[in-house]
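A reminder before we start the practical. When you read a complex entry, don't treat the lines as separate problems. The point of joint prediction is that each chain is placed relative to the others, so the output describes one connected object in space. Small molecules and nucleic acid strands, if listed, are placed in the same frame. In the example below there are two entries. Take a minute to note the order of the lines before looking further.
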Amino acid sequence: MTTQTAGLLTGRTAIVSGVGPGLGRSIALGLADAGADVALAARRVDTIDAVAAEVESRGRRACIVPTDVTDQADCRRLAEMTNTALGRVDILVNNAFTEEDWREPFDGFDPTRWRAPMEVNCFGALQLSQAVVPYLRAAGGGSIVMITTLSVKNPVPLLAGYAASKRALTTAAQVLAQELGPDGIRVNCVAPGHIRGGSLDEYFAWIAERRGVEVEEVAGEIASMNALPHLATPDEIAGAVLFFASDLSRMVTGQALDVNCGRTLG
Amino acid sequence: MTTTPTPVLLDGKVGIVSGVGPGLGRSVAIAFARAGAAVVLGARTESYLAEVQASVEDLGGRALGVVTDITDPDQCDRLARAAVDAFGRLDVVVHNAAAPDVAQPFATVDLDEWRHQMDVNLFGALQLTHSAIPFLGKSGGGSIVFVNSMIVRKILPNQGGYATSKAALLSAAHVLARELGPQHIRVNSVVPGWLWGPSVERVLRRRARDQGSSVEEQAAELTDQIPLGVIPSSDDAANAVVFFASDLSSVITGQSLDVNGGEVFH
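Here is the predicted structure of the whole assembly.
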């Protein structure tokens, strides 16, 4: 894919929030392979330092901005620093989401605990989108991509707050698509399902050990629920983000695409 | 301006495109050729095939035209086999062929008109898919792309034959995604809205005549419903087809993607 996408985003600058070792990194590197310069945002500097080096090894410029998307001043600073360091802003990928474990049954739990996923996943993305809009307008248009989740369509027990926050974000994206369309700013959602690597593979390893089987057997059972007998890797999911970031989707806005090996059909 | 590489998202791939006329079919064939694919063109009208084949070859691409009526099983087999005989493999099938929609109120329509729409738009596409599957399987997988229509999202009166045939086609895409997934054949749908071209211009001229206004005023009535403010081009829809044909969508199956400037959200 690296040589195939060269030229897709030449001359463009992208911001990616929530850059960790997983999907955020793959998105940033995918954008760089396609020719974009990339501003990398996360709360922890050590992760984004490593990704910045990988962006630069691809011959692109990188900009590191420690950012908490729940802080409006941080969001404005991220947009302004990107514009100053890299010259423009064309693309925003709202990938940041909270990693707090808030799984708990609805019965008897404190509903104010929904505020955490709502603040990060929904309001954080909207706040950062608001901060970049003036720069996208100045660039003559642009693309905002929300990373949502399978849980928007297939919520599971114990994750009401998370699912609701991402569903709220999906609806907000449709409103933004309508309001920002006249400025040539497109807003779309990519909804991944299971993603290999990181915490999912740790979960598979835990199950595998309890059952006395190999990790890949556990992964295979989950994969068999999909139309494509496969679980997507972060690099594979990044392909959909590249589509929405680029002029391939010049006339596509307000859409939500499920990227989950056909776990859902729509 | 410095030379920007052209993304070769379909490098080394071979694709069939049905319904190659002067509109979207032609745009898909050209987009495929620019992306590095060899294209095999199916249509009933030899002159259309010749023009598009020549245009692809002028770009330095490879193309073969085969006169084909997709409602004929033998002709579908011949088209699929011609692709493999000419270019050694088959990776993608794009079902663009459709019967032109006929505006007739349900109450007085001869239902054979609806059956004809179903014969071409649904069964023609399925017939060609039948013929292609054995060859797609040999390539280790592949991608089937159905060209659908915004009519399935936004019902207009008097187009019941067209709407129901396209709705059936969307459901068929889901079934095929599930059934063919184990063979690593992905199945997705592009859902174009209004696309600028000869048939839309005809519609606008007719409306202008019926309402005593101008084509420009009629076009403005359409774009009032479109957040991005312009009617997409057939190249915009073709780019969505390229996305689904390419490895950028390698973990996407059973999905539909709307190219409509934001007129309808999915």
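Discuss with your neighbour: The mean pLDDT of chain A is 94. What might explain this?
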